Amino acid sequence: MARMIASLYTAALLALLTAPSRANIESAEQSWDDLVRATLSQSVQSIGSAHLHVDPYRIVRQGDPAQNMVGVTFDDGPSSFTDGAIEALALHDVQATFFMLGEKVVQDPAMARRVARRGHEIGNHTFSHRDYCTTEMLENPDREQIFRDEVEKTARAILDATGDSPALLRMPYGCAARWAESEAQGLGYTLVFWSVDAQDWKRPGTDAIEKEDLAAVRPGSIILLHDGGGDRSQTMAAIDNILSGLEQKGLRPVSISELMGRKSYLPRLASQR
Fold it and tell me: What tens digit of pLDDT does each residue of 175-214 get?
């Protein structure tokens, strides 16, 4: 119990130091003890499960703005549109990160392999794009096992297709449930979210996708696009102008690992334990 409390206290301190806006600071005159107490209390309430430790350094929401780089990511593939994405990226000599669904990799391992061979990074997006933040899932006593099974099935599918095991994971729908973040980190993953979303999955039109992304992007941003999950022809048509627009702004589009300047350690699959 003492070790658990110490770990929780450390996590709360890290959260306070790295993201003070989350500590619910009401006044600049608030004492340090009050800040720590507020952060610790918030950490306990937000975690709400037996998995108490979440490392804030392995949750990525943006990069260093001083580097003038922008992370480019694609979700929900591979699909018949993925090839269009990698060809558009090649025109600008850009490597991106593709968060793939395990069921799609199983259906089209050749496309996953092609993405990897073109120098792009592949991340885990779970197997079936289940929403882990629904009330039904939050109340499911088997949620941790369901989540682990989906993540590890996807890791195995990507490993079989490409020869590499993914080190990055993006939650479907951007779910930020603490229990799922803790489970993912326990499997060795760094979680990646995004900061720019033109909602291209709604198919608002190529011009709208381009304008929304370029208006919202800043140094260190992470752009969310989709190469799967439906008709992505509008997104494919927008990629070239988005990349050109980033370059005109003096921003270099890169993969997540390059944006962060480090490689995450690889997870061990259940079969390797």
Answer: 999 999 999 999 999 999 999 999 999 999 999 999 999 9
pLDDT in tens, 96-136: 999 999 999 999 999 999 999 999 999 999 999 999 999 99
Distance CA(231)–CA(81), nearest Å, equals 8
Among residues 126, 125, 117, the alpha carbon closest in space to that of 83 is found at 117
End-to-end Cα, the chain, rounded Å? 27
The string of pLDDT tens digits covering residues 142-159 is 999 999 999 999 999 999
- Residues with active-site annotation: 75, 226
Number of Cβ within 10 Å of residue 206's Cβ equals 18
What the block records as the tokens of 14 is 């890290």
**Residue 176 CB neighbour total at 10 angstroms:** 16
Identify the residue whose tokens are 């079989």. Answer: 160
263 vs 75: CA distance, rounded Å: 20
pTM of this prediction?
0.79
Q: Specify the 3-state DSSP secondary structure of 254.
A: strand
CA–CA gap between residue 198 and residue 202 (Å, rounded): 9
For residue 77, report the phi and psi dihedrals to the nearest 5 degrees: -90, -170
